[in-house]
Amino acid sequence: QVQLVESGxxxxxxxxxxxxxxxxxxxxxxxxxxxxYRQGPGKERDVVAEISRTGISTTYADSVKxxxxxxxxxxxxxxxxxxNSLKPEDTAVYYCTALSLDAWGQGTLVTVSS
Length: 114
Description:
There is one protein chain. This protein is mainly beta. It contains no helices and eleven strands. The radius of gyration is 13 Å and the shape is globular.
């Protein structure tokens, strides 16, 4: 069955960095675009970044442009989100998804606080 498992979240100080990973299984990973979403406290779930099947094309929410980088390794069936210069407003549960499969991970919590 389709499974997405996120990892790498945690507590980080403002200005710090984290790298999230999402391991995929149960489908042909290289056939699907992948995305990262996040849901902050009391907020709706919003898209953070998207990456094409080959990894050549990426898009970002305005709020994270220049700070976050999405990438993928099709040999490892894994998508990553490198997050730099983190701000308190980046605090959220981060989810990876293969939208066209309507498949979501369980999420990983990122807390940015001093």
